[in-house]
Design brief:
The chain has 708 residues and is an alpha/beta fold. The protein has 3 domains: 272 residues, von Willebrand factor, type A domain (Rossmann fold); 112 residues, no CATH class; 197 residues, von Willebrand factor, type A domain (Rossmann fold, 3-Layer(aba) Sandwich). It is 29% helix and 25% strand. The chain contains 21 helices and 33 strands. Helix 4 runs parallel beside helix 12 and helix 15 runs antiparallel to helix 16.
Length: 708
């Protein structure tokens, strides 16, 4: 297998995936094991796999009586200064709208907010052959750094945005999992690879599975992008073109389309990727080039009435400049103004000007009346907020008080059956031998859990990941709707694929991003998972770890993560796939993401997994062979049934450190006095809160560390 093909991973359209708002971290599939030399077909594919549209209602729409009034016209206005920065804070009186010699009265005005206003976005990705060296990296670690940078850039995206993808050139990698899931036909010279969808992970999968090849047909790609935008469902529309600008003939052919784009009012960005100072030597014809024609890219932006951003080849800076470009676009998508005017019949399309700012760039797009009508008929924008409802967490004034502590407790009868329906007055609490009032109380049936899923994606998991995906999907679907969930993959180190959310479908969509490669940082992943789950207000905190091997690259130790689990109270469930009695792996030699020697393919660290599970009452499962995944699904189902027993009570109180000494822990007692036969399962010790002197010392140390 050719080493270059093995080691290189596509990341060009990761940036497009970030623009499309696909959530937290992502893990692209490795490039296919053969060079990208096959040219694209000469035809253009205009059909794309259909995808769901869960469109959102626009914020603060005009009244229905205004929308239905004859002559009412609404404009989506994009406004920037000469440097491309959005102009915010303008008033209705700053605008003048004309569709004739006299100004039209402005009867509706709203400044759009980027986080609140959904956008119809078309990404036109140049994946022709010249983009190859600009969009691959030769190091697995560099790929992960690029991915992390790009993931951080996508956080401000609106979850309601609809996105479509047009590719210029390119071909899909031979990835059987992707082909099976998508049933996507081959790419043409220009392809609508994904029609508008709010399920942005579908577009993301297409992007991850395309490798550069073929010719640069910019004008055809822009034409298809504009045709796609004509079917947009939101007034605010945007088009992003990514290219290196190397084909002057293709750019010249694009001029009429760019002029049309300039007059359309569509927000337009060109992202130039490459090195403007790269020299093309003799080997460039054989190996490709990283060169970028900056002047040509600028011309594309100017001709289209848009803005230009530049990014270095991904391998040269681990994607940081590409992430910066994405962040800039994210901040501006959806920002602008909505202006509604009364127009007499027969008037021409209105124009918009602003007072006292001759350098401002104004783009106005007349919103079709049917788009407004459809938007008004939609339900309110869905909210997928992290955390739980206010009535099931302690009020802020209590939980932020010094010494506030919360514990989880269960109560059982002598026969082992749980006791439900108790109230705060049924409990008696004492700390350090002294009675304390209960400041916050919540019964178990209202108690959601926070569940972190940590999946081993080291190289040995390659044949096991399809079964793991299926089992995890089933597991997530059966969780309580109020449960918060996050998803980590770990190989050389942990990678966050989905941050904490109670949008369970979002977690399921991210499972397609699990791809096996590299070594096994099991301990680091568990330690980071504990840190992540501790951010939640939910008292029931759980980690589900799925792995098939031994840790071979963590900076943390087994003892450290076991102690961290005990200290945090996190319940760890684990599923080990492999043989715990296999011979202990020998020493290994690491070359980048590859491991030579030290065959640990079949050896699973059952001892550490068992220690973690027993720390706080979890369970550990060992599956000798994954097979068809039935045993894996069964283990996940049993873990979910454990989580489904929501019999715990949350007890919150203000603990105080004794004035005469400063212990590190204090004893705690919780009883149900009216029923001495009840068995109360609760912590026996709690960490002692800091004294004022300790808090001041810690704050001083923190400040000094920050200054260093």
């Amino acid at each position: 297998m050719h080493q270059r093909s093995v080691e290189r991973f596509l990341v060009l359209l990761i940036c497009a995936g970030v623009i499309a708002g696909c959530g937290a971290a992502s893990q692209p599939a490795p490039a296919s094991p053969y060079a990208a030399t096959t040219a694209a077909t000469t035809s253009s594919a205009t059909s794309a796999v259909s995808a769901p549209l869960e469109l959102c209602r626009l914020p603060d729409l005009p009244a229905a009586s205004m929308l239905s009034k004859p002559g009412y016209a609404q404009l989506a206005v994009s406004l920037t200064d000469a440097n491309g920065a959005p102009l915010d804070g303008l008033k209705k009186s700053d605008f003048t709208v004309r569709s004739g010699p006299n100004p039209d009265p402005i009867v509706y005005f709203r400044q759009e907010s980027s986080p609140a206003t959904p956008v119809s976005l078309v990404i036109v990705g140049d994946v022709s052959e010249s983009m190859y060296l600009k969009t691959v990296v030769t190091s697995y670690d560099d790929l992960q750094k690029a991915r992390s940078a790009l993931n951080q850039a996508e956080d401000g995206l609106n979850q309601c945005d609809e996105v479509a993808l047009v590719t210029i050139g390119g071909e899909y990698q031979t990835n059987p999992s992707f082909v099976t899931r998508s049933m996507q036909p081959p790419l043409g010279a220009v392809t609508l690879a994904q029609s508008f969808t709010t399920d942005q992970s579908l577009a993301l999968q297409k992007m991850y599975s395309v490798k550069p090849s073929g010719e640069k047909r910019l004008s055809d790609g822009l034409r298809m992008g504009l045709e796609t935008l004509a079917g947009a469902h939101y007034p605010n529309r945007a088009l992003v073109l990514m290219t290196d600008g190397l084909d002057q003939a293709a750019i010249d052919q694009s001029a009429p389309l760019l002029a049309q784009l300039r007059e359309s009012g569509v927000s337009f960005w060109v992202v130039g990727i490459g090195d403007p100072d790269a020299q093309e030597g003799v080997l460039a014809k054989l190996r490709g080039t990283t060169r970028l024609d900056a002047d040509a890219v600028k011309k594309l932006a100017v001709d289209g009435g848009g803005w230009v951003l530049f990014a270095k080849p991904v391998a040269s800076d681990q994607g940081s400049s590409l992430a910066a470009a994405v962040t800039t676009i994210n901040k501006e998508l959806g920002s602008g103004y909505a202006l509604g005017v009364d127009q007499p019949p027969g008037k021409t399309a209105p124009t918009v000007t602003i007072a006292n700012n001759s350098g401002a760039v104004v783009r106005a797009n007349l919103v079709p009346s049917e788009v407004l009508a459809e938007a008004a008929a939609r339900p309110a924008m869905p909210q997928h907020e992290v955390g739980t409802a206010k009535d099931i967490i302690a009020p802020e004034a209590i939980r932020t008080a010094a010494g506030y502590t919360e514990i989880a407790a269960t109560v059982a009868k002598p026969d082992g059956n749980y006791v439900e329906g108790l109230s705060k007055n049924d409990f008696k609490l004492s700390v350090n031998g002294a009675p304390l009032p209960i400041d916050f109380f919540r019964a178990g049936e209202e108690s959601p859990a926070t569940v972190g899923i940590l999946v081993d994606t080291s190289g040995s998991m390659t044949p096991k990941l399809p079964q793991a995906r299926a089992a995890i999907e089933q597991f997530v679907k059966t969780l309580d709707p109020q449960d918060d969930v996050f998803l980590f993959a770990f190989s050389n180190r942990p990678y966050r694929l989905q941050s904490l959310t109670n949008d369970h479908q979002a977690v399921i969509k991210r499972l397609d991003l699990l791809h096996a490669y590299g070594q096994t940082a099991l301990f680091d992943a568990i330690k980071q998972g504990i840190s992540e789950v501790d951010q939640s207000h939910n008292q029931r905190k759980v980690l589900l770890v799925i792995t098939d091997g031994m840790d071979n690259t963590s900076s943390s130790t087994a003892d450290e993560v076991v102690q961290a689990a005990k200290s945090s109270g996190v319940i760890v469930y684990s599923i080990g796939i492999g043989n715990p009695n296999a011979s202990t792996p020998g020493p290994s030699i690491s070359i980048g993401p590859f491991v030579m020697g030290g065959d640990d393919m079949e050896h699973v660290d059952a001892v550490t997994l068992s220690r973690l599970a027993s720390a706080n009452g979890g369970k550990s499962y060992i599956i000798q062979e994954v097979g068809d995944g039935a045993a894996l699904k069964k283990a996940c189902a049993e873990i979910e049934r454990d989580l489904g027993d929501r019999h715990s009570y949350a007890i919150g109180f203000i603990a105080k450190t004794p004035g005469d000494y400063a212990p590190t822990t204090m004893p705690i007692s919780l009883q149900v006095p009216a029923h001495n036969d009840y068995v109360v399962d609760a912590p026996k010790w709690i960490p002692a809160p800091s004294t004022p002197a300790q808090a001041a010392t810690a704050q001083t140390a923190s400040i000094q560390q920050a200054r260093q």
